[in-house]
Amino acid sequence: MKRILEHRLLLLVLRLFLGLVFIYASWDKILHPAQFAQAVYNYKILPLPMVNIFAIILPWIELIAGAFLILGVFTRGSALIITSLLFIFIIAGVISVSRNLDITCGCFDPAGSRRVGVNLIIEDSALLLVSIWVMITSMKKRKVLFICTHNSARSQMAEGLLNAFLSDRFEACSAGTQPSKINPHAVKAMAEIGIDISSHRSKSLEEFRGKKIDYVVTVCDQAKGACPFFPGAGTYLHQSFADPSEFQGTEDEIFGKVRKVRDEIRAWIEETFSKR
Prior knowledge:
The protein is an alpha/beta fold. Helices cover 57% and strands 8% of the residues. Strand 3, helix 9 (221-226) and strand 4 form a beta-alpha-beta unit.
């Protein structure tokens, strides 16, 4: 059951559903602000000067938050906003029912006949549970395993870059099919952009067997061929980069090539993971 609830497809479906519900809910309110303002006034909760302001701003918040959910942009923030709105709607509904007010809810059609009642509160509560689940699931960091042959440079730099720039959404680690030791040029190249990987160590793939990995990323062709299957891994990605251990020339020339690989990995990570 846990694996089903954590499945990304379910998250996508619920996120799209929630986004569509709030976009649909906002549309008539935006088109008919006066009617929605009357529906808000009927709750007799807000002071009169606030009714029109609330009636104008709320539908746009619903529209933008719903659109962001559908697009997968600012998912956590959008889910938090929708969760807060649903709390407000439920509280307003409970207050109206406790006062025995016979009013329309103004939920989807401001001039409609849908009445505020227990059924509406139950429906909003169900949406609230969906919204909370989307918010919590979106906050969960996804684990990324970068793999190269020796786990000395490319995968180490990828680990450091992802943890530095997207640590709010991802937790990166790295390993090698034939682990050796950290390449000092890689450490220097990362320090140049303010990322310290000097404490990293070269790790074997065996350390990660049996662990839940969301993304398995091979950064060299040899590692791709030797990469084992990780049960439960949602996505396998591959992008090959030049091997710093094979660079030749003076120290400055070698470091210049390592710096280039670092920048290539950074650009690929930003392009690939910033959208996920």
